[in-house]
Amino acid sequence: MNALMYIGFGLIGLSLSIALIWRLASRRYSLPCPTWLRWLVELDNPFTDSNRAGAIIQQLDLQLDMKVLDLGCGPGRLTIPIARLLKHGEVVAVDIQPGMLQRAQQKAQAAGLNNIRFLQTGAGEGKLGRNEYDRALLVTVLGEIPDRAAALKEIFEALKPGGILSVTEIIFDPHFQRRNTILRLAGAVGFQEHKFVGNRLAFTLSLEKPRGA
To answer: How close are the terminal C-alpha atoms of the chain, in Å?
Structure first.
């Protein structure tokens, strides 16, 4: 029993060390979830409602003709159900990894969806346009971006006045961002807090681009 306990504590310690190193390295390099782990990204977290696709989408208050930006879309966990809801709208699914986009494309084809546009780029690279989107999502993605300020500035410019950026974070993610950190970074580029759902360990924070911006 003692040996098993030592092994268990060792594995926990190793996991925490890897998560910490990954988190610190993400401040200088882009280190998204590897493509070979895309099956894990496709799952709703069983420990919190805040990261469930349905709960995140519900907070978006979507209308049928909206244009939505899914940044760091991964294998399309949010992209596909949002596209199903936007009968007269469009989803632009963005990821830096071709393998993730390929998986999302396969799912879109299988679902018969033709209102999704796929774009391989990173947030902050100047390829998102201006005043185009009604909604934008960053679901456990913000901490993976080395220059978060540049990314948020580009998202702010890409949203229409009155548009909403939805940021979801959970403590289990090695790139977890605290609410106050997000508000500080987002406020610096012009965002205003719109709504907060959850708690300090698992939440969705909605940020609005002011209508007069």
So the answer is: 62
Q: Among 77, 185, 183, 85, which residue's Cα sits nearest to residue 134?
A: 85
Instruction: Compute the residue count for the chain.
Output: 213
Instruction: Give, for 84, the enclosing helix (H) or strand (E).
Output: helix 79-85
Q: How far apart are CA 116 and CA 132, in angstroms?
A: 15
Largest CA distance in the chain: 64
pLDDT at 27 exceeding the cut of 70 = no
Contact 182, 169 (CB under 8 A): yes
Listing from the earlier edge strand, what are the strands of the sheet with 90-95?
116-120, 90-95, 67-71, 133-139, 159-170, 202-208, 192-199
Question: In a 10 Å sphere around its CB, with 0-12 CB exposed, 13-18 middle and 19+ buried, how is residue 156 labelled?
Answer: buried
Please state, in angstroms and rounded to a whole number, the distance separating the CA atoms of residues 128 and 151: 10
pLDDT-derived band at 56 (thresholds 50, 70, 90) equals very high
For the stretch 75-121, pLDDT in tens is 999 999 999 999 999 999 999 999 999 999 999 999 999 999 999 99
Alpha carbon distance 89, 68 (integer Å)? 8
With 70 as the cut, is the pLDDT of residue 23 above it?
no
Alpha carbons within 13 angstroms on the beta-carbon side of residue 16 total: 6
The DSSP output letter for 121 is: -
Other beta carbons within 10 angstroms of residue 45's beta carbon come to 14
